[in-house]
Write a structure and sequence with these properties.
With about 150 residues, the protein is an all-alpha fold. The protein has one domain (about 5-150). The chain is built from 4 helices and no strands. The protein has helices spanning about 5-40, 55-60, 60-90, 100-130. Helix 3 (about 60-90) packs antiparallel against helix 4 (about 100-130). It is elongated.
Length: about 150
């Protein structure tokens, strides 16, 4: 392996770890806010990234739990996805890149990527349904950007 290839591959490994840590922080913050909101409903006015779900909670607790479940599911799937990417980039043998391990990891990565898209699409459609009941949920759209091309 040349020096340039080694540098590029090390850079890819570092970026995968940085993205993984960032996604873990985001997922942890969402889980913490969701739990804190259940303990103290007054906190729902200023959740993660200034999100206000107090109106949704007061109007329909089921819709609130469904929305929060989607908000948690997408980042957790992203965390698992990047964990699989990290496993791939740390264990790949560049001398023999076409192995059973690489094939299995690529399959897992594509599975999680597809799952993120499907869950994001279902979440986006569910939030659109909330708008039919005069619940403003447009601030949630950035949580399911992955399905934006499908709508």
């Amino acid at each position: 392996m040349t020096k340039t290839n080694s540098f590029v591959f090390t850079f890819v490994q570092i970026m995968a770890w940085v993205i993984f840590v960032g996604l873990c922080i985001e997922a942890g913050a969402l889980i913490f806010n969701f739990a804190l909101g259940l303990i103290n409903p007054n906190v729902m006015k200023n959740l993660y990234q200034g999100l206000d779900l107090s109106e949704l909670y007061q109007r329909s607790k089921i819709a609130y739990f469904l929305t929060c479940s989607f908000m948690l599911c997408v980042p957790l799937l992203k965390v698992v996805l990047f964990y699989e990417v990290i496993k791939l980039v740390t264990k790949i043998d560049l001398a023999r890149p076409f192995s059973k391990f690489v094939s299995d990891q690529i399959f897992q990565i594509s599975y999680y990527t597809f799952s993120i898209g499907v869950v994001s699409f279902i979440a986006r459609q569910s939030v659109k349904r909330l708008m039919l009941y005069d619940i403003d949920a447009s601030s949630l759209n950035h949580f399911w950007e992955e399905s934006q091309d499908l709508s």
